[in-house]
Design the sequence.
């Protein structure tokens, strides 16, 4: 990993921990952006962690670009020596794979896809060496995921799977982006999964849909009453496959205000994880099952 | 006091100076695309400079006033009428109770800012009244205004007619428009020849130009330094591991058509960016029509800060003129 510092115009410092994705790069970016936040530097207006980089927005009328750059650089050693440990939560997200709504949408945009004659899941299964879509789905939901970035549009989480690099699923984006994606579609692009928080354009492959809202500007949904955005970087997610009946039941529960997402508090230690991925994941899933 | 919308125009939305502090959750800055014009309009009618105004693009709305108010329209050249009588741009005028504000066809520029004394007082969402339609946030139910909407205002009569911003302080893009760019971010992905070509070529604003971003066509395609794509970045040489997008940053998907990301842009994504349009010139983009010729001009940080200062000095002069 080689940290790269640059300016984004006259109002942003941009720091790339690494040009490739890894949990190490994500952790360093998260702890360094936290260090910048904790430093409470005057003139800093936004701190945005991303997958393997982060951005600091500043007001050059308050702090000069050279000064803010120097201050951010000084914090790198702090991030390096920081414990790679996170107190966070694991959340179960119900997913209706191969649902009728994303299916209808993916058929509508078939000419923009690498495989106009199949479905997004069939294609993803094939290029990742799985015999069937079901096997791919199994690989998608069996191990948990890390929210490595929230953004693109309001409240959309990017998720990175907690498995060895050689087990990572990789799927290219659509050849040309769609103009439509159903709200709460579970998507996939590169090595990232995502949940489309709102309906709109998108280039990620579509695998299914969750009945659980993750963004509600009106804050009417029970689990979004405190804040309209559900996810934050560092959250851990476990997909739970559900069928149509469960999908409808959860949707009804969300509607009448009785749906409560299953969430457990967990400690995530990167070194522990790197030493024993399956074991660390099993422990977190156990905590989730007990919740 | 309410503003009765009889005709909304093309895509007229409520905007103020924007929403700070939620970019890390994917909620964009929002706010006026030409913030200079918005500030000036507010000053003319005696509002706080960040009061909410209407931003109308290419076409003006038609609005009936239920109470007398001071009004000013800045930004694009779009002839202003009150009950059919022409009014001066960048100058305050009075609209009486029962009168209707309307507009002729666009003459130059792209966006007007309509400030009304007391400001528009729709509810704030996350500290701003700016409309962010993708996230259904701010404005009127998170959308552009529609015929039949009644917009609440602060209701004050304001300072009255005749306050004006002098001609040299009415900031607008030149011909061809020049946008100053500070190279940075993923600039190193471009070959030297491609980097030079970007600044040499003349570009034209593409039809895909809105509050999210302005696309440009007509220059030579950009070539990338060859490399094996890093893990997680995606196969195209213009792809990176998804990161944040700076305000004003210029992405070039596939190396073909640069897009300058503006107030409602996505907060991040997987395309490389070659640098950013300097903060002082972002207002000017808001006044570019499709097919306008544009040159990107390479500057360094000192020049960017100098331009930023100049813009501030111009705003200070308006404040001084208006007392």
Sequence:
């Amino acid at each position: 990993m080689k940290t790269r510092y640059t300016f984004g115009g006259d109002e942003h410092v941009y720091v790339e921990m690494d040009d490739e994705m890894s949990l190490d790069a994500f952790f360093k970016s998260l702890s360094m952006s936290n260090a910048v936040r904790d430093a409470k530097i005057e003139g800093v207006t936004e701190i945005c962690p991303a997958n393997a980089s982060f951005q600091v927005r500043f007001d050059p009328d308050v702090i000069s670009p050279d000064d803010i750059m120097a201050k951010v650089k000084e914090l790198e050693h702090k991030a390096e020596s920081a414990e790679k440990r996170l107190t966070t939560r694991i959340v179960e997200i119900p997913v209706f794979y191969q649902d009728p709504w994303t299916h209808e949408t993916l058929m509508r945009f078939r000419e923009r896809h690498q495989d106009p004659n199949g479905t997004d899941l069939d294609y993803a299964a094939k290029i990742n060496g799985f015999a069937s879509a079901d096997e791919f789905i199994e690989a998608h939901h069996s191990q948990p995921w890390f929210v490595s970035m929230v953004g693109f549009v309001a409240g959309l989480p990017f998720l990175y799977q907690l498995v060895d690099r050689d087990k990572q699923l990789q799927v290219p984006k659509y050849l040309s982006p769609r103009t439509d994606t159903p709200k709460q579609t579970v998507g996939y692009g590169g090595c990232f999964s995502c949940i489309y928080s709102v309906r709109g354009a998108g280039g990620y492959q579509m695998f299914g849909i969750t009945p659980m809202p993750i963004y509600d500007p009106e804050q009417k949904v029970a689990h979004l009453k405190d804040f309209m955005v559900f996810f934050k970087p560092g959250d851990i997610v476990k997909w739970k496959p559900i069928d149509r009946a469960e999908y409808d039941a959860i949707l009804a529960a969300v509607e009448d205000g009785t749906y409560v997402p299953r969430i457990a508090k967990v400690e995530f230690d990167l070194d522990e994880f790197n030493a024993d991925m399956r074991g660390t994941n099993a422990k977190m899933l156990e905590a989730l099952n007990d919740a | 006091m309410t503003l009765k919308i009889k005709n909304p125009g093309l895509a007229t939305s409520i905007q103020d100076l924007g929403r700070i502090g939620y970019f890390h959750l994917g909620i964009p800055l929002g706010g006026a695309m030409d913030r200079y014009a918005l500030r000036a309009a507010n000053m003319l009618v005696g509002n706080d400079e960040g009061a909410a105004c209407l931003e109308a693009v290419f076409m003006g709305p038609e609005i009936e006033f239920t109470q007398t108010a001071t009004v000013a329209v800045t930004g694009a050249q779009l002839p202003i009428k009150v009950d059919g009588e022409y009014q001066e741009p960048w100058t305050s005028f009075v609209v009486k109770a029962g009168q209707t504000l309307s507009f002729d066809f666009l003459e130059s520029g792209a966006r007007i800012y309509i400030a009304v004394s007391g400001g528009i007082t729709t509810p704030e969402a996350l500290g701003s009244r700016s409309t962010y339609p993708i996230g259904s946030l701010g404005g009127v139910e998170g959308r552009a205004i529609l015929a039949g909407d009644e917009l609440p205002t602060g209701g004050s009569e304001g300072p009255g007619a005749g306050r004006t911003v002098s001609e040299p302080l009415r900031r607008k893009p030149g011909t061809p428009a020049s946008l100053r760019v500070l190279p940075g971010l993923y600039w190193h992905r471009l070959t030297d020849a491609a980097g030079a070509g970007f600044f040499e070529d003349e570009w034209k604003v593409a039809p895909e130009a809105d509050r999210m971003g302005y696309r440009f066509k007509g220059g030579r395609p950009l070539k990338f330094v060859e490399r094996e794509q890093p893990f997680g970045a995606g196969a195209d040489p213009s792809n990176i591991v998804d990161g944040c997008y700076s305000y004003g940053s210029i992405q070039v998907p596939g190396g073909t058509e640069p897009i300058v990301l503006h107030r409602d842009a996505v907060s991040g994504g997987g395309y490389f960016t070659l640098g950013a349009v300097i903060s002082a010139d972002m207002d000017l983009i808001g006044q570019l029509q499709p097919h306008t010729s544009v040159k990107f001009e390479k500057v360094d940080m000192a020049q960017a800060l100098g331009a930023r200062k100049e813009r501030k000095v111009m705003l200070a002069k308006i404040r001084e003129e208006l007392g």
